[in-house]
Amino acid sequence: MNTFEERLRKLQALMGVGEVDLTVIGPGANMLYLTGFSDDAGERPLLFIVPPEGPPRFLVPELYAHQVEEVAAFPPTHIWSDSQGPEAALREAVRGLEAERVAVDDDLAARAVLLLQNALPKTSFSLASPLLKELRMRKSPGELELMERAVAIVDQAFLKLLENVTFLGRTEREVARDLEAIVLEEGAEGMAFATLVASGPNSALPHHRAGGRRIESGDVVILDFGCRVGGYCSDITRTVVCGDPTPRMREVHRVVLVAQEEGVRTARPGVPAQEVDRAVRGVIARAGFGERFIHRTGHGIGLEVHEDPYIVEGNPLPLEEGMTFSVEPGIYLPGEFGIRVEDIVAVESGGARRLNRCPRELVRVN
């Protein structure tokens, strides 16, 4: 049994436990996880249909049929053409399936859901995320190896950025483009998300997109970026200063580093995810910046940049070996600056291991 067959059997077992008669997966991370293939088919329905036992059914637009045959672990079973439309092929694909309770991919297009409702009029629908997150949260050694390769690329790219790229007088967008070029030169198959470069007062905005502001002497600059290798993501944040940092900048950065270290130390098998968030938040609160830490401590990462487990108050999920997630405390002072440091960790029997290895210090750049 290969990896994808094993994943399929595990999904079918979970469907039995959850009393789900059919799971329908569209393009995206879940399809890639289950089949080894995914492509944005646009308006054309591309559906991986999983019954509780037996082989899956794969509804594929004709223009993707050859790609699915070449790449996917499972062959296309129902191919439809643009002239015919998908309706008849979908009805045939679900024929004979006693499906009263269907779990659909969380991001499945509305058009595909409506087609399913027409093909299965007596069916109740629910989200498939409870099933899929149970499978995907714990990474196999092979998955972890791909993630470590993606992390190594962004680590090296950050070091090369410091050595070769000028910040002063250039726009955030120009620095972001340089950084992405370095990441791709290092062997990434693509960026994991739009690179964030936030300078000066923009650094106090946690998800500021790289824009046209020119970086000035004395600016704090947050760099948040990631890449993909074999479909798996990395994610890193480092904070630098264009020129000499002020004592206030150094103090805020010190608090962020201590908080992150406490979060990594707390993360180990059996510890609830929210306890890691509490540990990080406690350090920042005791330093007097509690109200300026305005987001969760971390997010799971794998085939998606943001996935389970989420490291946040209210999530009692016990951490397990194989889980991977970010630990990324930040302090944001509106009108002044913000500082964030982010590393990816993997939970092992003895605790959490950092995958990122590049320096976390407050580096001076020119």
Task: Describe the protein's architecture and organization.
With 366 residues, this protein is an alpha+beta fold. The protein folds into 2 domains: 134 residues, 3-Layer(aba) Sandwich (Creatine Amidinohydrolase, Chain A, domain 1); 225 residues, Alpha-Beta Complex (Creatine Amidinohydrolase), CATH 3.90.230. Helix content is 34%, strand content 22%. α7 packs across α8 and α9 packs antiparallel against α10. The model has no long low-confidence stretch (mean pLDDT 97).
Offer a concise description of the structure:
The protein has helices at 3-17, 29-35, 65-71, 87-93, 110-119, 129-136, 141-164, 172-185, 247-266, 273-286; strands spanning 22-25, 47-50, 57-61, 78-80, 101-104, 124-127, 190-191, 196-199, 220-225, 227-229, 232-233, 236-242, 298-300, 307-311, 324-327, 330-333, 337-340, 343-348, 351-354, 363-365. The protein is α+β, with helices and mostly antiparallel strands and 366 residues long.
Strand order of the largest sheet: 4-3-2-1-5-6
Q: Could you state the order of secondary-structure elements as H and E?
A: HEHEEHEHEHEHHHEEEEEEHHEEEEEEEE
Query: What is the level-2 CATH architecture name of the largest domain?
Result: Alpha-Beta Complex
Give the amount of beta strand, in percent: 15-25%
Number of helices: 10
